[in-house]
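Researcher: I've been going back and forth with a colleague about how Polyprenol monophosphomannose synthase might be arranged in three dimensions. Neither of us has a model we trust, so I'd like an independent prediction. The organism is Fodinibius salicampi, in case that matters for your notes. Sequence below.
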Amino acid sequence: MGRHSSLVIVPTYNESHNIRRLIRLVMKLGDIDLLIIDDGSPDGTAEIVKEEQKKFSDHLLLIERPGKLGLGTAYVRGFKYALEHDYQYICEMDADFSHDPNDLPILINEVKDGRADLAVGSRYANGISIINWPLSRLILSYSANLYARFITGLPIFDTTAGYKCIHRKVLEGISVDKISSNGYAFQIELHFRAWIAGFRLKEVAIIFREREEGVSKMSKSIVWEAIWRVWALKIKSIFGAL
Ligand SMILES: Nc1nc2c(ncn2[C@@H]2O[C@H](COP(=O)(O)OP(=O)(O)O[C@H]3O[C@H](CO)[C@@H](O)[C@H](O)[C@@H]3O)[C@@H](O)[C@H]2O)c(=O)[nH]1
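Model: Here is an independent structure prediction for Polyprenol monophosphomannose synthase. You can compare it with whatever you and your colleague have in mind.
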């Protein structure tokens, strides 16, 4: 057991308008460490984190990478940190308040109390619980999830969900270095590897709100990666080559 058992990993790229408030909200929850993985944000996100570190000392951690290297590799870097520092419950969360930090204890308790090995904060577990997304984004996300679910057989509705709590045994069991997707496909790959390895996934309904500050980093290449990656994952799993 580490000094503190729960670690929330938040990747950031140009989140200067959100990060201070996010840090303060998470720190208020107590008993949770926060690790920011910043990719050299030109808007000075990392500098704000450093200012806040004076207040929250070793409960607020920062890893800086030299340039925009993608959400997937940011999380893999964070997972390795969590494993090296003996954290038991490891969460993923966006920096932009799409994910309500007040849901963190709910996700963590699902895993802590043994109801799941991986608790997925789901936008589609209870109908559709997304606020303020343009219809085009909703259709894209919903159909991407149907597609990924159909091909992989994953037993969850929100395969690309980016809000979750993972027991460390899952990260140990799937060898995080093997994860090779980098965009939203990263989320599908993580869920798929955990499920194939026999871990229990459970969806917990959350409300997802479109960000009010900053912009989404979604791009065409992220969408394409998700389209072909699900096939690659499925084929690899059929041949036992995951
Ligand atoms: N370090 C780092 N952080 C990044 C990068 N790209 C995005 N981020 C950070 O990752 C978080 C999510 O990025 P957004 O660009 O806001 O994502 P989104 O379009 O709202 O996508 C959300 O929904 C997807 C599914 O629809 C999810 O798959 C995704 O994980 C996320 O939750 C934010 O904190 C953002 O700053 C990157 O290259 N590097």
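Researcher: What would you highlight for our discussion?
Model: I'd start with this: Strands lie at 6-12, 32-38, 60-64, 89-92, 118-122, 130-131, 164-167, 201-205, 208-209. After that, consider the following. The radius of gyration is 17 Å.
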